[in-house]
Amino acid sequence: MTTAVGSELSVEWAGFRRVQRLAYECAEAVAARLEPGVTEREAARMQRAWLRERGVRDWFHLPFAWFGDRTAFTGFRVPLQFFPTDRALEPGMPFILDMAPVYEGYTADIGYSGSLGVNPVQDRLLADLEAHRELILREVRERRPLREIYEDVDRLMVRQGYANRHRAYPFGVIAHKVDRVKQRRWSPHLFGFGTQSLKGLAADALHGHREGWSPLWSPYRFSDHPPRPGLWAVEPHLGFRGTGAKFEEILVVTDSRDPGESAFWLDDDLPHVRRWAEDK
Amino acid sequence: MTLEGARERFVRTGGIELCVAELGDPEQPTVVLVHGYPDSKEVWSEVAARLADRFHVVLYDVRGHGRSTAPAPLRGGFTLAKLTDDFLAVVDAVSPDRPVHLVGHDWGSVQSWEFVTTGRAEGRIASFTSISGPSLDHFGHWIDARVKRPTPRRVGQLLGQGAKSWYVYLLHTPALPELAWRGPLGKRWPGILKRVEKVPGGDYPTASLRSDAAHGAWLYRDNVRARLRRPRPDAYAHAPVQLITPEGDAFLSERLYDDLDRWVPRLTRRTIPAKHWVPRTRPDRLSAWIEEFVRSVEGGRPGPQATGRHAEWFGGQLVLITGAGSGIGRATAFAFAEAGARVIAVDRDAEAAARTAELSRLAGAPQAWAETADVSDEQAMEKLAERVHREYGVLDVLVNNAGIGLSGSFFATTSEDWRKVLDVNLWGVIHGCRLFGARMAERGQGGHIVNIASAAAFQPSRALPAYSTSKAAVLMLSECLRAELAARSIGVTAICPGIVNTNITSTARFAGADEAEEKRRQKNSARLYGLRNYPPEKVATAVLDAVVRDKAVVPVTPEARGAHLMSRFLPGALRRIARVEPKL
């Protein structure tokens, strides 16, 4: 994929790519250490410790871990239910690790789905996510309004026989903007979200509100605008009965007229992409 | 009599000759069927015939019944210890090297519990399927627990079972039962079975009924009081057990089995909507469950593993759903699949049906198939029915779900529009009920038909004249059919969902609107339904619940329930709401 547009930009993207890779490495390392009896809290703590050891000091949001039917957000009503619980992992159970570290001022937000042992349902869900990755990129390049793309993703999920589970996220978002964050000595967080990142998001929301766009990619009217240049963490989340699967990675949107350069995935060397390639 | 092709022999044990019949290939796993009271081994004739081509089926007349001889004296000749001797003698004769799969009904099950919990038979029994007959030891502990800690609920359970056991008290009176059976009761019994228990006539009960019943009274007298008073403390099952509970059993409360997990480490529960004599009334279901259980135990698993809602009810049942390619139909297919049912997904979109079938298998259906048919096409439906009955068998549950939407003023609705919506929404249901329901009724082993109507069936609206008419017709059709099929133990349910988030809106026709306007309205209504966001999965849950509880009309979603209530108590208000034209 074409990445070299301006040297300044490509330096910036390299920074984002570094932190995204780091986060996925963390997910793979933690996933390899999961075993029966490990709780969501412990899995979240493992992610946090792994990243802190490697220099992460601030977060877009603290690491999440969901096990079993919590991967499909079964019975979620209030946002507090997203936080890790004492649910213990059992053989065959699906899990999702979701983390958003800030490293050297760059933010990543990733989602990693897997299962302890074999889980044919989740395997199927993961395989079917590939079509969503292609659909999203294609329609963003076509500069379709985000709300319409959201609805097309929704339709594809329904056709596949799945439920849309990113609808459960705050504002039902399928994606949100990520940006550079100022490194501060003290970086508190609020309800699991880093205050620096929240500040950035709020500033974007304010600007967007004036200019008619939003840093949140939702099914609502405020997302009825073409893709806005910048970096978007995209997270389609499928659910089938009590099993869920998602990926989350950064999509780069530029103002280039060349369709190939107007939008592309920041990194194509990620666990879920490699997995699809292997299956072929 | 009815055990065609059976090889008979007599096994001698403790001064008794037991009449043993064998069917099928002795190389196959052995299934031993033990009959109850007042019966002989012929009670199993229907089940045995169904199992004979896959298993080595063994039946025997319990001592004093059928063509086996009776002990002398009778008193003390029917103790569980002696019955265990008989069983071991039969098993040693028919399957000396391999443990057998045991199935018992009524007293056959009561004595089989003794076999499966006594150390003497350990290693001789591979699995046990219990139908309508508790272990006397477990029963004793059950009573004990309720007498010692009598909470109101437990006292109610005790009194309930106490009332159901009236015949046990009568059987303990001396001489009277024998007189009754050899006299008027013996004469009337076949009629009573047919009328009260809905047992089909034919060659059952057999000619030996009077002596079977008279001798069998000693089963109760020799064992019940002794065991209930002093139940064994170590009555743990040494083999996996499948418990089949007929819901409408007049003699045994379902609550009897509440504490069973304590005694049976590997327990599979099944529930069947039927009365006591299931080997006569539900041979298909019974033999399917026996086969499934035996196969899973032979394969090294303790039992079938469906975990969904009502799995004990729908496991192994054959379910057909029309319009299963999307929306409520697809969600219903998945819900049945999770409960372990075998699913036939029918849709006019072949790809969507195939997808539903594939995911159904992932969700837990032991088998799932996709079929392509347009429900409004009578010939296509006839072909479908023919193929389904030939390849998969008679349905246990039929869900007529396929439907289309049509909105617009009555005067804008053309006769072509009318025909289309009635063809799918009404005629589709008629074809389904007629073609599949007829075979269900003919089989005479129960079943259930679910028709997906709509809240529009009782909520008038100026925007949906044709759609509402079609759905009201489906509602009334369901009610009439329910009345007709009640005698055949087939339930009929009309489900009336309100606004459910499915793709019915994006395919709906808007009469009187041009193409662009129709697209716009489809999009807007889809968005509205999306905002309402009532998931089709909840309708699917309602479908399964309705089948289990045999409900007649089930409104789903709060607005549907509200409209249903208003249609009864505030019809005027409902009519005023009907005048509002929805803005799209």
UniProtKB/TrEMBL annotation, chain A:
<feature type="domain" description="Peptidase M24">
    <location>
        <begin position="15"/>
        <end position="255"/>
    </location>
</feature>
<dbReference type="Pfam" id="PF00557">
    <property type="entry name" value="Peptidase_M24"/>
</dbReference>
<dbReference type="GO" id="GO:0004177">
    <property type="term" value="F:aminopeptidase activity"/>
</dbReference>
<keyword id="KW-0031">Aminopeptidase</keyword>
<dbReference type="InterPro" id="IPR050659">
    <property type="entry name" value="Peptidase_M24B"/>
</dbReference>
<keyword id="KW-0645">Protease</keyword>
<dbReference type="InterPro" id="IPR036005">
    <property type="entry name" value="Creatinase/aminopeptidase-like"/>
</dbReference>
<dbReference type="InterPro" id="IPR000994">
    <property type="entry name" value="Pept_M24"/>
</dbReference>
<protein>
    <submittedName>
        <fullName>Aminopeptidase P family protein</fullName>
    </submittedName>
</protein>
<keyword id="KW-0378">Hydrolase</keyword>
TrEMBL record, chain B:
<dbReference type="InterPro" id="IPR002347">
    <property type="entry name" value="SDR_fam"/>
</dbReference>
<dbReference type="InterPro" id="IPR020904">
    <property type="entry name" value="Sc_DH/Rdtase_CS"/>
</dbReference>
<dbReference type="InterPro" id="IPR000073">
    <property type="entry name" value="AB_hydrolase_1"/>
</dbReference>
<keyword id="KW-0560">Oxidoreductase</keyword>
<dbReference type="Pfam" id="PF00561">
    <property type="entry name" value="Abhydrolase_1"/>
</dbReference>
<dbReference type="Pfam" id="PF00106">
    <property type="entry name" value="adh_short"/>
</dbReference>
<feature type="domain" description="AB hydrolase-1">
    <location>
        <begin position="29"/>
        <end position="278"/>
    </location>
</feature>
<comment type="similarity">
    <text>Belongs to the short-chain dehydrogenases/reductases (SDR) family.</text>
</comment>
<protein>
    <submittedName>
        <fullName>SDR family oxidoreductase</fullName>
    </submittedName>
</protein>
<dbReference type="InterPro" id="IPR036291">
    <property type="entry name" value="NAD(P)-bd_dom_sf"/>
</dbReference>
<dbReference type="InterPro" id="IPR029058">
    <property type="entry name" value="AB_hydrolase_fold"/>
</dbReference>
